[in-house]
Design brief:
mainly alpha, binds heme C, about 200 residues, 10 helices
């Protein structure tokens, strides 16, 4: 009899716990504007850490940070990653700041303290249930290793490098022709000959 009461209490407590969790989750809503709670962030980071095999964590980068390798990685980052992470890796972009979880500031120690192997693994495989896509295929890829070197370089980025990256940020044909027109307009001797251009929507 006592055993049955104990079992019943456990079941009731379980149901009450699940109901409370459900209630809190629903009340909190599913908006991506929020930041994950400290508990959620801790569980997610721990699960991510545990899911990276030890051999991968300790893997060594086959590339050295030469000027050429870094230049290539900067162009790649500007083309594929900056839309969320920003050219400077701050994560301060419209998409990066409105994802759940948000794109982190990769210049900070939380990212910089990850090993090369962990960074490679994250870039190659992505992060499940977040906005971070997997960039590699089933085989090892050199591009992700080069990007690791670029991430290490982020805290020392200079303005010239930032400027150079802007050329590689994806743009639609309309944006490119608008830029061209603007350039022509600015180089024109008599700007008053030009009609006023309609401004583009921000979103
Ligand atoms: C669609 C948006 C998006 C794009 C594009 C994207 N990322 Fe991410 N990335 C994220 C988000 C969001 C996170 C944070 C995930 C988390 O908190 O677990 C992240 C996390 C990371 C991390 C882990 C940083 C840390 O401290 O946890 C690395 C490294 C990274 N991204 C590199 C890249 C690289 C390199 C590219 C381009 C090849 C890229 N990302 C493209 C959204 C993106």
């Amino acid at each position: 009899m006592r055993k049955r009461t104990l079992l019943l209490s456990i079941v009731v407590a379980g149901i009450a716990g699940a109901a409370a969790f459900g209630w809190v989750t629903i009340r909190r809503g599913f908006s991506a504007r929020d930041n994950p709670s400290a508990m959620e962030a801790y569980v997610a980071k721990t699960a991510r850490k545990l899911s990276i095999p030890a051999s991968e964590r300790e893997a060594k980068n086959p590339f050295a940070p030469t000027t050429e390798v870094l230049r290539e990685a900067r162009a790649h980052f500007a083309d594929h990653c900056a839309i969320c992470h920003g050219n400077d890796g701050s994560g301060k972009t419209e998409i990066g700041q409105n994802l759940y979880p948000k794109a982190p500031d990769m210049r900070q120690s939380e990212t910089q303290s990850l090993t090369d192997g962990q960074l490679y693994y994250i870039i190659h495989n992505g992060i499940r249930l977040t906005g971070m896509p997997a960039w590699g295929g089933p085989d090892k890829d050199n591009d992700s290793w080069r990007l690791v070197l670029f991430i290490r370089h982020l805290p020392q980025m200079n303005t010239q490098e930032m400027k150079e990256m802007e050329q590689f940020n994806p743009k639609s044909p309309a944006e490119r022709s608008e830029e061209q027109e603007e350039e022509q307009f600015l180089n024109e001797d008599q700007p008053s000959n030009h009609a006023v251009k309609p401004s583009r929507q921000k979103h």
